[in-house]
Amino acid sequence: MLKDEIKNRQPQMQVFVERFSQDYPNDPLVGSSMTGWGAAELLVEEIKRNGDDLTWDNFLQSFYPFDNWEDSIHSSMKFGKGNYFGLTSKTITQAKDGEISPISNPATFDRASRE
To answer: Which residues contact 74 (CB under 8 A, 6 or more apart)?
Structure first.
């Protein structure tokens, strides 16, 4: 089942739902709140990867090893020299009764074919 596959692959989604719902019970779980949470996950990972040697150049260079990074609420992220798309897969989800459930398979943009 698609819902179970995504939940098993991305337990971070449950963390997002629990924490965001607790702190902002009247705000929607979708849209800019989810996008912002995912961006914050990436920023925190970048800072961790740089450790005590955080400079602007090191920060930018540390994006390159991201190859289908899946420790985020987003499907996967990939960066590399010449590839600054980041997120190239998206799953349509539905927020209902306190849960976010996928209602589609991931749609992926292929950088090479532009499809």
So the answer is: 38, 87, 89, 90
